[in-house]
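ok, trying the design again with the full structure, not the truncated one.
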């Protein structure tokens, strides 16, 4: 499933063609067809994200909510240039010159301000990991709150009510860069460790957003590429999907475990 950085990158692409533009023609799934006429002629004011949800906001007060889950995919095209795909087109927003097209997703809704406020999924979400106003200090304090401090990091770091937008690869990568074992709990960590984890949570997610999915810092990527590593062979990640390969920092073999029925990767030395 795409994680916060990938969803934000998709939202940026859509924002470039929709924000400030009038939508001339709209296609909605059958259950939302009544909104087509209400959205046609409206102008998109903003395309933003909260965790893995995308919100396309219109100047008439309506917001298109979409969550890609595993299968959904957005395309941005010149108007009328539909991609060749076997997927089912679910939403189309056409401006005079461009089209934003959502394929395959099923979690789609059109909401007014009040419904947006009360939305069951959105209202449960924690702060967005890419929110530029979220600070390391606030996140360190959140780690120490009663509802979170007794839980394992493995569980917290997939819980969208703790922080929205973290998924499986970010979980492994953040915990590696923070040098923490996934079984540890915030309440058993020192304040320094909680602060280090909070800083790395923001740093790794923001780096992944800037670099379109690479969590390794630029120096490590250069070293790995020089050694012949490809993106698929994973210069992208420090530990994720690198079971049995050497840790860049200490040379120990990366290990894999299952945590919350999802795989987690770690360095047994650096994260002891
Ligand atoms: Zn290591």
């Amino acid at each position: 499933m795409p994680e916060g950085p990938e969803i934000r990158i998709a939202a940026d692409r859509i924002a470039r063609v929709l924000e400030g533009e009038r939508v001339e023609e709209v296609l909605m799934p059958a259950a939302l067809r009544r909104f087509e006429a209400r959205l046609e002629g409206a102008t998109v004011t903003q395309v933003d994200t909260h965790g893995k949800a995308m919100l396309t906001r219109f100047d008439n007060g309506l917001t298109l909510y979409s969550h890609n889950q595993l299968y959904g995919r957005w395309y941005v095209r010149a108007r009328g240039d539909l991609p060749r795909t076997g997927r089912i087109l679910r939403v189309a927003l056409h401006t005079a010159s461009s089209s934003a097209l959502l394929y395959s997703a099923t979690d789609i809704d059109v909401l007014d301000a009040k419904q947006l406020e009360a939305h069951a999924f959105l209202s449960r979400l924690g702060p967005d990991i890419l929110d530029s106003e979220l600070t390391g200090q606030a996140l360190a304090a959140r780690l120490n709150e009663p509802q979170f401090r007794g839980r394992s990091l493995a569980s917290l770091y997939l819980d969208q009510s703790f922080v929205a937008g973290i998924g499986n690869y970010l979980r492994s990568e953040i915990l590696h860069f923070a040098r923490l074992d996934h079984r540890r709990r915030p309440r058993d960590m020192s304040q320094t460790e909680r602060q280090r984890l909070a800083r790395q949570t923001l740093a790794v997610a923001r780096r992944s957003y800037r670099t379109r999915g690479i969590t390794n810092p630029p120096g490590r990527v250069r070293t790995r590429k020089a050694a012949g590593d490809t993106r698929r062979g994973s210069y992208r990640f420090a530990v994720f999907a690198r079971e049995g390969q050497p840790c860049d920092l200490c040379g120990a073999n990366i290990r894999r475990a299952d945590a919350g029925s999802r795989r987690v990767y770690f360095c047994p030395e650096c994260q002891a």
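Keeping the full-length input from now on. The mean pLDDT is 94.
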